[in-house]
Design goal:
Stationary-phase Survival Protein Sure Homolog, Chain: A; 14 strands; alpha/beta; globular; homodimer; 256 residues
């Protein structure tokens, strides 16, 4: 039987991970290792300065898992390096409440947990539900289950992770699966300036309107049109297509 | 005169940012906005749950800057969205104490600060000194200055950031500049298990040995051979070269 490490960034008590655990348990032996509270926008932070604590959590029949007082990437590291023997066959991160599409996936703890799986050499997938209201987690969990079964046949290249986004609609209304590119869409944020009770200024990041990338083959457009978006993303950040254009920066030591 | 936003992840009181500020001030108007304490391995985390505080810091003649109680990416966001008018021409992050090469750049606050510059549409560079001992910050700062001058001529593609690593040797012993790829080298970490004074377990991430990628055109090999390594890295995480290989995942809705 396949062994799956399941994590997320909404925390071990989130509904999305509970529903996903139930679905994946029908095809795999599932171990949950997740943050002890919400760690959205944790990016790929890891904890070096402080130690980590691990507690066992019984989600009342839903699952028995490990809560870590660290980031999503910490959870995957400690799960694979210390808690799970043997190593899992697959790392799945989600179901995230909210889309992980466009430029903003760089902040996502959900996506970073999956990228950490790839760093450690395990095929990995992040799965997000593209809504913040009335989430149909069971639909996304069903899609994740189907993709996990497919990943038993299809070998992912070692540096590649699947970033999956599911439209929030009934399963029968999903139009299919599209392999997409990350769009350049992003939130145009601002900072509120406020005053504390002592009159001193503080600032708070505030989501603004969405700057939309109209590229038709993108993650965002696929979801908007009712398709499950599957974007292959890589832990190799090199912009290979720009290597030639930058040759002009090469120089001899004497030019420095 | 060019306007540069200078930040780092070692914090506003670090030596590396002080030396870099002094060098860049000879070619640009420099504004320093940096974390109020060390935030190494912060990755691309941003602060959503809490507000941010900004304090002015006078580094006794070295520079006058802004300290932020957030991550490196927070610093760049608040600098560009709120503190600096007009926006800077360039974001420079560093000089980091320690190399940022190989797979581990995914954890780097230094690199993430530069990537945040690109998210906000500003040409950006991360600069790191490949040592942890007896750092020659002035050499790295001199290299950064040269590259900043070159970036006035060469237009970086909007999604691309320069990740620069400088060998820790005298300027006259640098062999030149090489445009490189990110290597797959990484630290093989483990977790120490210890007991607190009450006898309860805690875990601490521990650097292990380095798994080295022998690819000759890589960041790590260039630095080892005495060259400044310049790797173009991208905020577009799509693995374009694997899009075709994954077409088998596409399906119609009825297959879900």
């Amino acid at each position: 039987m396949m062994r799956i490490l399941l994590t997320n960034d909404d925390g071990i008590y989130a509904k999305g991970i509970e529903v996903l655990a139930a679905h994946l348990r029908t095809i795999a032996q599932v171990t949950v290792v997740a943050p002890d509270h919400e760690r959205s926008a944790a990016g790929h932070a890891i904890t070096l300065w402080d130690p980590l604590r691990v507690s066992t959590v019984d989600r009342n029949g839903a699952f028995f898992g490990y809560a870590v007082d660290g980031t999503p990437a910490d959870c995957v590291k400690i799960a694979i390096q210390r808690l799970l023997k043997p190593k899992p066959d697959l790392v799945v991160s989600g179901v995230n409440l909210g889309p992980n599409t466009g430029t903003n996936i760089i902040y996502s703890g959900t996506v970073s947990a999956a990228l950490e799986g790839a760093v450690l050499g395990i095929p990995s997938m992040a799965i997000s539900l593209a809504t913040f209201r009335q989430p149909r987690f069971a639909v996304a969990a069903r899609v994740a289950r189907t993709l996990c079964l497919q990943l038993r046949q299809l070998r992912l290249p070692p540096e590649v992770v699947l970033n999956v986004n599911v439209p929030n609609r009934p399963l029968t209304q999903l139009k299919g699966v599209r392999v997409t590119c990350q769009s350049r869409s992003r939130w145009l944020e601002t900072f509120d300036q406020r005053r504390d009770p002592r009159g001193r200024a503080y600032y708070w990041l505030k989501g603004g309107r969405r700057q939309r990338d109209p590229a038709p083959d993108s993650d965002e457009q696929a979801v908007r049109r009712g398709y499950v978006s599957v974007t292959p993303i890589s832990i190799d950040l090199t912009s290979h297509k720009h290597l030639d254009a930058l040759q002009g920066l090469q120089s001899k030591g004497s030019a420095l």
